[in-house]
Design a protein that fits this description.
By secondary structure, the protein is of the alpha+beta class. The chain has a single domain, classed as Calycin beta-barrel core domain (Lipocalin). The chain has helices at residues 2-18, 34-37, 148-160, and strands at residues 39-47, 55-64, 70-78, 83-93, 101-107, 110-119, 126-130, 137-141, 168-170. Belongs to the calycin superfamily. Lipocalin family. Homodimer.
Length: 178
């Protein structure tokens, strides 16, 4: 019985660690500067997943916590419920803080990968973020809209990295910030 419990525990640890891995063939950005990344980002596009399904006007706010972790506040508007939804989480660097690779938790000890695959390294105005698999992709920007050429560049990059760009949801950003 002890061996079975130990095997189950080991399998759980491996599965949880896999949730933060970087998808094969993707390299997070280097020379990452967290202080420049902090602040508000608007979600321009995403692949569909259950925790944001039906939400528009999605944004993320990143702030440094006193312990060095990053507070993450994700917010989106549900037209069906005529209400804002909000989730507060915590992000930690997986490796070196100069590598754009973090793990984020909204549910206690369970973390998911947050890997910045492309970033406007001059002004930090846009980012292409991927999760632990090719099922998770976000295009983020500091403004509610991105110029068409930047959108096309990020979509091309996502396709080059093996993401299903036909599944992208273009997120409306029409509600006033509350």
């Amino acid at each position: 019985m002890y061996i079975l419990r130990k095997l189950l525990f080991s399998a759980l640890v491996v599965m949880l660690a896999a949730c933060t891995e970087i998808p094969q063939g993707i390299t997070p950005v280097g020379n990452f500067q967290l202080e420049r990344y902090l602040g508000k980002w608007y979600e321009i596009a995403r692949l569909d997943h259950s925790f944001e399904r039906g939400l528009s006007d999605v944004s993320a706010q990143y702030r440094r916590n006193p312990d060095g972790s990053v507070e993450v506040i994700n917010r989106g508007y549900s037209a069906d419920q005529d209400a804002w939804k909000e989730a507060v989480g915590k992000a930690l660097f997986i490796g070196e803080p100069t590598l754009g690779s973090l793990k984020v938790s909204f549910f206690g000890p369970f973390y998911g990968g947050y890997h910045i695959a492309a970033l406007d390294d001059r002004d930090y105005r846009w980012a292409l973020v991927v999760g632990p698999s090719r099922d998770y992709l976000w295009i983020l920007a500091r403004e509610r809209n991105l110029p068409a050429d930047v959108r096309e560049q990020l979509v091309a990059k996502a396709q080059q990295l093996g993401f299903d760009i036909n599944g992208l949801i273009w997120v409306g950003q029409n509600q006033p910030d509350a």
